[in-house]
Amino acid sequence: MKSHIYTALTAVLLLSAACLSSQQESSTTNYTDEIHQWHSERIESLKKKEDGWLNLAGLFWLHEGKNSVGADERNQIVFPKGKAADRLGILMLENGRVRFTADPKATVTADGVRITDSLIFSQEQKKPVILAHGSLRWFIIKRGNKYGVRLRDLEHPAVKSFTGIARYDIDPRWRLRARVEPVSDTHQIAITDVLGQVSYQPSPDTLVFDWQGKNYRLDAVESGDKLFILFADETNKKQTYAAGRFLYADKPDSTGHTILDFNKAINPPCAFTEFATCPLPPPQNRLPIAIKAGEKRYSKGY
């Protein structure tokens, strides 16, 4: 009798273990599929015509007053030969406002409508005016006290030749629960960009996570409804982008925690183009460990 009970109990335990193992395998598979899907969407975002990073074709800083634009080398701003008319027009920068006056012989449009003279940038405008000529698109950006022309080419060869980004194998261990320590609604941290300009960004939260028995801290800045983390680690020396990587996380839940999923760590735009103005990780976000998760160094990077 005892033998039958023991046999039945053993069978139940084995069945329970098999079910648990199956559930764990299913969970791991679902997570892996989730990361693959997320990364596919990430790749597509890089290739987008409207706001992807692969089709950037130029970044030109304006000086106060008139800035002539066109493919002729005598212009202050020289667009790619064969892509633009020799003279496209004049960009006039005055007191933080930029007007564009088109050359009478050039066809330049905004939202599909040909323009002759138009205010294309001011502090009051909610979004930049995008000008178009052939496959080229350009608009004004502001970085610190500098104003620049960001140029896109919708036929940029970098988009066609792009084959993806190498990644570490997906490792669920790098999906970490982090404690969110509120600092202050008015707390700011200094962020330096690749131009050497320093800006002070609101950083109301510090994320604290554990890895192999030790605590590590990362200061986050707000980015819409997400937390944005600029971080560096030991893999930057050879395996990942030298200047560090980016990571986004949800804002804290009701328990004061969030998830840091380093499998979603990404290269900054500067890894793909020389025409981006990326922020760099602050000193306190340089981790003394190797985070072997997420995107690796882009082989054609800058």
List the helices and strands and how they pair.
Blueprint: H1 2-47, E1 56-61, E2 65-70, E3 77-78, E4 89-94, E5 97-102, E6 109-110, E7 113-114, E8 117-121, E9 131-133, E10 136-143, E11 146-153, H2 157-161, E12 175-182, E13 188-192, E14 198-202, E15 205-211, E16 214-223, E17 226-231, E18 245-250, E19 257-261
Parallel strand pairs: 2-3
Antiparallel strand pairs: 1-11, 2-4, 4-5, 5-8, 6-7, 6-9, 9-10, 10-11, 12-15, 12-19, 13-14, 15-16, 16-17, 17-18
Amount of beta strand: 35-45%
Find the structural class using helix and strand composition.
alpha+beta
Question: What about the largest sheet?
Answer: 6 strands, antiparallel
| Helix content estimate | 10-25%
Mean pLDDT over the residues:
92
Low-confidence stretches: 16-22
- How many distinct folded domains? 2
Strand arrangement within the widest β-sheet reads 1-11-10-9-6-7
- Span of the ends, CA to CA: 74 Å
Task: Give a count of the beta strands, DSSP E runs of length 2 or more.
Answer: 19
How many helices does DSSP assign? 2
